[in-house]
Amino acid sequence: MPFFSFKGVDAAGSDENGEVAGASEAEVLGALKARGITVYELCSQSEEKQKPWYLRDLDFGRTGISAAALADLSELLSALFRAQLPALEVVRVAQRSASIPAVRKHLSNVEYALQEGSGFSDAFSSGGLKLPPLFCAFLKVGEASNELAITLADVATFYRAQSEFKSGVFAALIYPAILIIAATGLLGMVVFFLAPSLVPVFESNNVDLPGSISALMAVNEFLAAYWLPILIVSIGLILGGVAGSQSGTFKSNLQHLSLIIRPIRNYRYLSETAQIARSLSLLLSAGVPLGEAFEELEGIFKSGPLSRCLSDAVQYVKHGGNASDVFEKDVNIPVIFREVFKIGVEMNQLPDLLPAATQTMEHLAKRSLENFSVLLTPVITLVLGAGIGYLVYSMMGAILDINDVAF
């Protein structure tokens, strides 16, 4: 059944937007009207995808959900399904328990969709939140196998691990960011306060300004004269970056550029291979055949560095080949994944062996990022320290010049 994106207002005048499944526009409009939503824009997902990226709506991440929140929601849904409650009652209880307004609104839309006869996975995918494709794929697998409680528990574990991993990444990069912010603040104080306070002393004695003070004052005057255009250009670059990030070409070019830096390349291959391994393990454990599991992963990781490898694996499996032959050809794929996959296929124990390899790759990815951070921090410290040292030297020289002028 096709999905439609809509925009509208509810009876209270609040904005309503999201996605909903329906056989036709008339059916979707009727269902939304029954929910008290007045629709002023409706288009199918295929029409939306055909628009150029600069004409698409920018959500700035407002409709997404964090990995931690998704793990919490999955755990709650798993517990409710384990209690053998009907799907409609599960959604109602989860809605009352949710602490995030966007999640409550999403679950309210899911409740309406279930009442209209949609399946649980379709209703959940079209509730309004921007859910990860992998989460939606797991819901479909769980619903098809009638094992939603078990599948959602595995999904919760997956996104909990992802949340902890992202927290580790943030912690590793926060110190270099603090250094840069502190240095920028110090430079601003020198440019806007200290340097201007020294200028009158030299001017009152008809003495030329030292080169360092002249340079700082030139920066001061430039920023004072052109702060508005600079602000407009900065905002334009930010908005352009956000808009461009919705373009597949832009994302692809940015990802290829990031692969030039060796530590980032190692981290990306390790982290993405770990995600693929964990996802593959969950899909296989849920009873999905290997070929179909690779097709699911191909669609989910289509913009990642392993997209070509996954496409080749799908074709190999379709023609009766062994996907391990494809992985062996890509030297960027971690050795542990290649070996575990090969052994798992030969022993028919792939779902049991992949989790251990996943944990190892996640640990290696985290350590790779930490090593990069350990190297990056002293480099930034040395560069910023040299710059600050030069400023201090320049200011001290200017102060000594003032003493010469005074006496």
SSE blueprint:
Layout: E1 3-9, E2 15-21, H1 25-34, E3 38-44, H2 45-50, H3 67-82, H4 87-97, H5 101-115, H6 120-125, H7 133-144, H8 148-204, H9 211-244, H10 248-258, H11 262-285, H12 290-300, H13 307-318, H14 323-329, H15 335-347, H16 350-406
Antiparallel strand pairs: 1-2, 1-3
Task: Describe the structure in your own words.
By secondary structure, the chain is mainly α. It folds into three domains: 49 residues, no CATH class; 94 residues, Type II secretion system (T2SS), domain F (Receptor-associated Protein); 247 residues, Type II secretion system (T2SS), domain F (Receptor-associated Protein, Up-down Bundle), CATH 1.20.81. It is 74% helix and 5% strand. It contains 16 helices and three strands. The longest helix has 57 residues. The termini are far apart. 27% of the residues are buried. About 4% of the residues have low confidence.
TL;DR?
This protein has 407 residues and is mainly α.
The separation of the N and C termini measures 88 Å
CATH topology of the largest domain: Receptor-associated Protein
**Percent of residues in helices:** over 70%
Number of helices: 16
State the major sheet.
Answer: 3 strands, antiparallel
List keywords for this structure.
3 strands, mainly alpha, Receptor-associated Protein, 407 residues
